[in-house]
Amino acid sequence: MPFPQHKYDQVFTPEFPGALENFGCVTWMDWFLRRTTPTRAKWDIFSRYLLHELAHMWVGNIVTMRWWDDLWLNEAFASNWAVSVTPCTDAWTAHLASEKLKAYFMDQGPMSHPIRQQVHDVAKAAATFDAITYPKGSSVLQQLMTYVGEANFSAGLTNHFATHAWSNTTLQDVIDAVADASGRDLDHCRAGWLETAGTDRLTLGHDTDGFALVSQGPGGRPRPHVLAVGAYERSGNHLERMALVEVEVAGERARLDLPAGGDLYLVNDEDLTFASTRPDATTRDAFFRNAARLPTATAWGIAVTTAWDMLSNGEATAAEAVQRLTVVLAVETSASVIEPYLNLAVEAADLWSSESERDELLRAVAAVCRGLSGVGAYRKAALRGFARTAAGVEEVAWLQAEAGEDIDLQWRALVRKAQLGSPTAAEAQALLDCDPDPDAWVSRLQVHAATPDAAEKNAVWQTLANDRAVLLASVHSVATPFWSAGQDDLLRPYAEVYLDLVQTIHRSGTVPARTYTKWLFPVFGIDLTFVGRAEKLAAQVVPVLRTNLLDRADRMLRSRG
Question: How far apart are CA 533 and CA 216, in angstroms?
Fold first, then answer.
């Protein structure tokens, strides 16, 4: 069906959260208007947003879910188009490197829920705009398409939209349309994938006559999966795929006709399904050692995802995760994932490591950033990563020289300089005087936020949390340096203040409440007692705040465990 309107507008709006698919007129937060050329990862995000909202003209506006329990029908369908229609051909790999990782994390924590769940009121609905509804829902649609075949999937959707144009639908309408087109019974897929919470675990194992894939569902029996397992062997300093075996998993154990003697076996090669994957115990170390030799960005992405999921579940150390990320970054060929992987490496080194190993891991990430800065397509993302990991004022000075006239990068360098305890007042004022951005004062506030000084912290908290003078789109950028590693004594008093804030923040409205609850959650200067209090408080607040409180508390428990 051609788009039925005469024109299609894009309107950029200050203080608007994200983007919204008003019919024929998409409204965007003005954060998407950049003063410098975005990194490739930011272009990918922009592409996905633009196509997501465009797809909503059909999926959500011409055909609309009947009630909020089928919200995923709007959001997941509208996310799956970027790879085939834009230059962002690595968009699915970028999805794996960022959004899908968030879904894996949430789906294995206290806020896991079925993609389709009962929603009794709008307050509950507001809490479902999350990583399970969006990236997990999108990944499950990809699995459904793999399960029935792309041609059957497309034919089913075409019939669905033609039948239900200008009306409301339910999950069963979609399932019936795809089932009719494919000739497959999809009731077990609906029950397993859409009405059951949690993530399956797929582990490579051995039978007496070869390999087997051992599957475990969150409640016992696994969901149906169609996926691939790749076998790789060394060829010089690289791995080459010698076999790719596609398997349909219908139970707890499936035999795999894989060749023996491989140097690495990759479960969920090509990223066809949504599952937590593991090498077997005998090949774990070889997996970590050889993953950087894999030949494609998607294969590297699966290896990184496995390593990060192992870290998140206490099966790998921060040092192992950083080592895996840094060696993959050193050979990565997709500009789309450089920034997401650097962000993961910094998070692993800064938040998941012990205090005794933090500096060494950050130096390892900084070294990779400095090396990647010489590659044109990676330069901006690499220098931004270096701005978060530079170990001393000499390194910051090098970054400032490399930044040149890039004012945004100069501000990032000053934030790092402030974190390191060096004076920044004169430089920050000079940069503020020459910065034409009307929101440059927020960049100056980030420098204040990073400064290890009690008066500075107090002033920033007053502006950010009490006065709420910072634009919602910038709260994250100020809160992140506020919660800086190594400043625990300065930060400890704000943990108590945060808990007081959460109890009244819902009066500001859903979007501000969600923003402040998530990004002001203490990262340093807290202990497990605080986490327990946050979890207890979550039972007393509105659903959208409960989601953020439990998610952030879970992150602290896992990273400090």
Answer: 33
pLDDT > 90 fraction of the chain, expressed in percent and rounded: 65
Q: List, as one string, the DSSP characters of 477-510.
A: HHHHHHS-TT-HHHHHHHHHHHHHHHTTGGGG-H
- 455 burial (CB, 10 Å; 0-12 / 13-18 / 19+) is exposed
Helix 407-419 crosses helix 379-387 at what angle (to 10 degrees)? 30
pLDDT at 82 over 80: no
How is 357-415 classified by DSSP, letter by letter? HHHHHHHHHHHHHHHHTTSGGGHHHHHHHHHTT--SHHHHHHHHHHHTT-HHHHHHHHH
pTM of full prediction above 0.90: yes
DSSP summary character for residue 191: I
Q: Which two tokens stand for residue 138?
A: 């999108």
- Mean pLDDT, residues 92-101: 86
Residue 80: pLDDT band (50, 70, 90) is low
| Contact status, residue 406 vs residue 38, Cβ threshold 8 Å | no
Q: What are phi and psi of 80, to 5 degrees?
A: -105, 25
DSSP H/E element including 450: helix 440-450
CB of 334 closer than 8 Å to CB of 299: no
Instruction: Tell me how crowded residue 309 is: count the other CB atoms within 10 A of its CB.
Output: 21
| CB atoms closer than 10 angstroms to residue 539 | 9
Q: How many CA atoms lie within 13 A of 452 on its CB side?
A: 14
pLDDT tens for each residue of 313-337: 999 999 999 998 999 898 888 888 9
- CA–CA gap between residue 474 and residue 446 (Å, rounded): 10
Dmax over Cα atoms in the chain, in whole Å? 72
Q: Could you tell me how far CA 106 lies from the centroid of its own chain?
A: 10
Give the tens place of pLDDT for each residue, 238-260: 999 999 999 998 889 899 999 98
Three-state DSSP at 15 gives: coil
Classified as helix, coil or strand, 272 is coil
Q: DSSP for 296-338?
A: SHHHHHHHHHHHHHHHHTTSS-HHHHHHHHHHHHHH---HHHH
Written as six digits, the tokens of 285 are 């170390």
- Tell me what pLDDT residue 209 has: 77
- Could you write out the three-class secondary structure of 503-541? CCHHHHCHHHHHHHHHHCCCCCCCCHHHHHHHHHHHCCC
The DSSP call for residue 170 is -
